[in-house]
UniProtKB/TrEMBL annotation:
One of its GO terms (molecular function) is DNA-binding transcription factor activity. Residues 230-256 are annotated as: Disordered. The keyword Transcription regulation applies. Residues 8-75 form the HTH gntR-type domain. Gene3D superfamilies: GntR ligand-binding domain-like, Winged helix-like DNA-binding domain superfamily/Winged helix DNA-binding domain. It holds the Pfam family GntR. The keyword Transferase does not apply. Keywords: DNA-binding, Transcription, Transcription regulation. This is GntR family transcriptional regulator. It comes from the Bacteria.
């Protein structure tokens, strides 16, 4: 596990370090670890470690065991379903509103973020890539005129980030993620609400399906048919478009 250094808060850095260690298998699900030893390994005081572990416990990534330490928990696929079901309900119609009311400034802002995503993908800079990815989605949400909606989605994304759930560099390349955003930008630039909703729904459903496949490989519980249905559609359905979307985004666990 890497030592802590840099400009961001120590707590944020410990969260990132623990999450990376879980993803890399350095910290294993089901194993018990000492917070004191973690602080020594990271060469930081116990306070930021305790604060980081509290944050990770709230997200469901670790659990404290009294007078023993903390245990890394298996990531629950049902949490991914809940998060992406909400994102589909909120972001898909927001994309339609953004396209309907798009002006040149919005199109330019989205294009700038997509160009930055493309550049950071070429550089292999995952952290900067994800910042621009979030800004792309944030611009879409704000364009609908609902700042609370944008804040809610930001919180949902924070949940999946804290859980260490990511497809970047695992199930798909950064370049492939860029390609999924291109039709969203094209639809907004064309002021086509239906196309914008279809493109964003396909992107979010595909992301959810890939994450669930990753968790299945880690031995997670299988989804029920109802849970799989929650991420298969979303809201803001376009007449005649639902069947095409379901065909375009494979269901979790389906061959790709």
């Amino acid at each position: 596990m890497r030592e802590i250094a840099g400009a961001s808060s120590l707590t944020d850095q410990v969260v990132d370090a623990v999450r990376a260690a879980v993803l890399d298998g350095e910290l294993k699900a089901g194993e018990l670890y000492s917070a004191y030893q973690l602080a020594e390994r990271l060469k930081v005081s116990r306070t930021p470690v305790r604060e980081a572990l509290l944050r990770l416990a709230e997200a469901g990534m670790v659990r404290f065991e009294r007078n023993r330490g903390f245990r890394v928990l298996k990531r629950d696929p049902h949490e991914v379903v809940e998060v992406f079901h909400l994102r589909l309900l909120l972001e898909v119609p927001a994309a339609g509103l953004a396209a309907r009311h798009a002006d040149d400034a919005l199109v330019a802002a989205l294009r700038e973020e997509l160009d930055a995503m493309r550049a950071t993908a070429a550089e292999g800079d995952d952290a900067r890539f994800m910042r621009h990815d979030r800004r792309f989605h944030h611009h879409l949400l704000l364009a609908g005129g609902n700042a609370r909606l944008a804040a809610t989605v930001a919180g949902l994304r924070d949940t999946t980030t804290t859980l260490g759930a990511s497809t970047a560099g695992r199930s798909r390349t950064l370049g492939e993620i860029v390609a999924e955003h291109e039709p969203v930008l094209a639809a907004v630039a064309a002021r086509d609400p239906e196309a914008a909703m279809r493109a964003l729904r396909a992107h979010l459903a595909h992301t959810a399906a890939l994450l669930l496949d990753q968790l299945a490989e880690e031995g997670g519980r299988p989804l029920t048919a109802r849970q799989a249905e929650l991420i298969g559609g979303g809201s803001g359905a376009v007449p005649g478009g639902a069947d095409r979307d379901r065909a375009g985004a494979p269901a979790p666990g389906a061959p790709r």
